[in-house]
């Protein structure tokens, strides 16, 4: 595989990529005067940017560059994420060493007003995004509460965190297995069974906790 690196001096810097999600960074960095360089798969890989071996190699090279002095952030375009350089290096090294897919960084989670969590950037790898349906957070909050009634504000926050963890686990599972085209089951972070069903256009996988 060959890759292209653009934006280095003495030439002009690359255009700053979109910055919708921040991890390990102060969002104010998005307005800072930064010089961007861009890493791209070579022309012979055109159309294969989302293949897992290509993504792994892109991430590996990005982590090596992120470890250089002066690098502040790594920007993953598909997820519109800006990730602090130390976090990115650690997450990618863990993944390449056999750990979990770095869902926070190579994808992002968008919280809906209805309490859902939807991935952004997973489609690069499998052609689908994941959505944890609303209601999962409330169910989780009740289970973590003191009597199954009103879990309170703390329980609600815990339920949302649980839904986010479910989304991250679903992302990891789908990166390993690939897109799904029929209803199936996934396993959650605590061994719980999750129902996963593709949308009619196959662009979205809806995930909920099985009763």
Q: What would the average pLDDT be, to the nearest integer?
A: 86
Beginning-to-end CA distance, first to last residue: 46 Å
Helical stretch tally: 6
Tally of DSSP β-strands: 11
If strands are numbered along the chain, what order do they take across the biggest sheet?
A: 6-7-8-11-10-9
Shape: globular
Element-level helix/strand string: EEEHEEHHEEHEHHEEE
Sheet having the most strands:
6 strands, mixed
Query: What is the CA-based Rg, rounded?
Result: 19 Å
Q: How many structural units, i.e. domains?
A: 2
β-strand amount: 15-25%
Structural class: alpha+beta
Q: How much helicity do the residues have?
A: 25-40%
Architecture overview:
The chain has 211 residues and is α+β, with helices and mostly antiparallel strands. The chain has two domains: 3-105, no CATH class; 108-209, no CATH class. The chain is 33% helix and 22% strand. The protein has six helices and eleven strands. A six-stranded mixed β-sheet has the order 6-7-8-11-10-9. The longest helix has 26 residues, at 152-177.
Quick synopsis:
Helix content is 33%, strand content 22%. It is α+β, with helices and mostly antiparallel strands and 211 residues long.
Helices, strands, pairings?
Blueprint: E1 3-6, E2 21-23, E3 38-41, H1 52-66, E4 73-76, E5 81-84, H2 85-96, H3 103-106, E6 108-111, E7 117-120, H4 123-126, E8 129-132, H5 136-144, H6 152-177, E9 184-187, E10 193-198, E11 204-209
Parallel strand pairs: 2-5, 8-11
Antiparallel strand pairs: 1-3, 4-5, 6-7, 7-8, 9-10, 10-11
Helix pairs in contact: 1-2, 5-6
């Amino acid at each position: 595989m060959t890759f292209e690196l653009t934006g280095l001096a003495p030439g002009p810097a690359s255009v700053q990529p979109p910055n919708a999600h921040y991890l390990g960074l102060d969002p104010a960095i998005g307005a800072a005067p930064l010089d961007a360089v861009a890493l791209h798969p070579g022309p012979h890989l055109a159309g294969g940017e989302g293949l897992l071996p290509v993504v792994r190699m892109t991430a590996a090279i990005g982590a090596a560059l992120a470890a250089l002095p002066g690098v502040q952030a790594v920007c993953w375009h598909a997820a519109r994420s800006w990730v602090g350089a130390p976090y990115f290096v650690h997450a990618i090294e863990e993944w390449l060493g056999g750990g979990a897919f770095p869902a926070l960084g190579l994808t992002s989670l968008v919280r809906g007003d209805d309490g859902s969590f939807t991935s952004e950037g997973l489609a690069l790898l499998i052609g689908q995004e994941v959505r944890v349906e609303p209601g999962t957070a409330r169910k989780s909050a009740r289970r973590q509460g003191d009597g199954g009634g009103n879990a309170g504000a703390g329980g609600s926050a815990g339920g949302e965190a649980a839904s986010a963890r479910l989304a991250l686990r679903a992302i990891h599972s789908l990166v390993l297995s690939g897109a799904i085209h029929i209803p199936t089951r996934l396993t959650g972070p605590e061994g719980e069974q999750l129902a996963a069903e593709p949308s009619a256009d196959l662009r979205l996988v809806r995930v909920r906790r099985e009763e």
